[in-house]
Design brief:
It is built from 10 helices and 14 strands. It is of the alpha/beta class and 380 residues long. Helix 2 links the parallel strand 11 and strand 12. InterPro entries: AB_hydrolase_1, AB_hydrolase_fold, HAT_MetX-like.
């Protein structure tokens, strides 16, 4: 039996779709599969479902553990479970793996039914809007017509926002954490440098490296190192590593590891290159770049949110310089311009962008109170 506050073992499920999915690019994706997990129980009124949208290198495995696997906790296990801020004794929580991922849903590593070969670089470009449309089909099949809430952090927050704009009648609350209404030029620049590291790796082979039996690990390592720097605050990095040397003395080398921060980044890069797909990295970072709901409204974010109907909770972190509080406040202003019901929490946390994944008591307190409010609305 699981301990109090733990979900225990969970099992991924698969759902196949024969009906083509029309993508924003104009391409169609045929005969695809979506992988998902659910936690808790859908109530008789089917009114307590919460969709959790994942960020760049996460997946459908939001909470719980896998039987027989050590260290297999879901990526938001500290937030979701019995008695936790998103309480699975009260809510039916759904995690869906996005198309183009390398964690089960149809992506570049799968067979293209049109050719009988692995998609590789031929997998179509996907957007946040495409992911939301695919998620809506999964919810249709699960019999969930209206969500109590859509929750996401970072890129997941962008999906939550898009849900509120394109399916306004299908959700009652949008909870967007450490996110932005569009990437800044600096953020796009970081993504491009990471992509170039992968594309210029000699083992990339134009994205068809599977056929050559190789993996562009060098590029993936550098991409992850670049990304990881942006997820941490300067203060957090200083506190954790400072200028601590790996050895007792300087080695006077331009190529060997001298500082502990270098060792940490290389370790993160090595781990990432062992499990993440290079084409998936290109697809997901491009989806980040493309997200910009104001673009179709002459750059006016307030007009973009005119179709919104649900209630909102926005939260940001003071030391998050990649998705800074100023970007969340842009969204808050656009919602207030449309007289939407919006709550906003700006949390003084030292961890940088990664704070949305961590167990900060103030942050979790905000989410606990908000979900209690949602649960209270469902009482007869």
């Amino acid at each position: 039996m699981p301990h109090a506050g733990q979900l225990g073992h969970v099992t991924p499920q698969r759902m196949a779709f024969a009906q083509p999915l029309r993508l924003r690019s104009g391409a169609e994706l045929r005969d695809y599969e979506m992988v998902y997990e659910t936690y808790g129980t859908l109530n008789a009124e089917r009114s307590n479902a919460v969709l959790v949208c994942h960020a760049l290198n996460a997946s459908h495995h939001v909470a719980g553990t896998y039987e027989g696997q050590d260290k297999s906790e879901g990526w938001w296990d500290n937030l979701i479970g019995p008695g936790k801020p998103l309480d699975t004794d009260k809510f039916f929580v759904i995690g869906i793996n996005n198309l183009g991922s390398c964690f089960g849903s149809t992506g570049p590593m799968h067979i293209n039914p049109a050719t009988g070969k692995v998609y590789g670089a031929d997998f179509p470009v996907v957007t946040v809007q495409d992911w939301v449309d695919a998620q809506a089909r999964v919810l249709d099949a699960l019999g969930v017509q209206q969500l109590a809430a859509v929750l996401g952090g970072s890129l997941g927050g962008m999906q939550a926002l898009d849900w509120s704009l394109r399916y306004p009648e299908r959700m009652r609350h949008c909870i967007a954490i450490a996110t932005a209404p569009a990437l800044s030029a600096q953020n796009i620049a970081f993504n491009e440098v990471a992509r170039r590291a992968i594309i210029t790796d000699p083992d990339f082979h134009g994205g068809h490296f599977y056929e050559h039996g190789v993996v562009p690990k060098r590029g993936l390592r550098v991409a992850r190192m670049i990304g990881h720097i942006t997820y941490l605050s300067d203060d957090a990095m200083e506190q954790k590593f400072g200028r601590e040397l790996r050895a007792a003395e300087l080695g006077y080398s331009t190529q060997d590891i001298e500082f502990q921060i270098e060792s940490y980044l290389r370790h993160q890069g090595d781990k990432f290159s062992d499990y993440f797909d290079a084409n998936t990295y290109l697809l997901i970072t491009r989806a980040l770049d493309y997200f910009d709901p104001a673009r179709e409204h002459g750059g006016n974010l307030s007009r973009a949110f005119a179709s919104a109907r649900c209630k909102y909770l926005l939260a940001s972190f003071t030391t998050d310089w990649r998705f800074s509080p100023a970007r969340s406040r842009e969204i808050v202003k656009a919602l207030l311009d449309n007289k939407r019901d919006v709550s906003y929490a700006e949390i003084d946390a030292p961890h940088g962008h990664d704070a949305f994944l961590l167990e900060d008591p103030r942050y979790h307190g905000v989410l606990r109170a908000y979900f209690q409010r949602i649960a209270g609305e469902q009482q007869p």
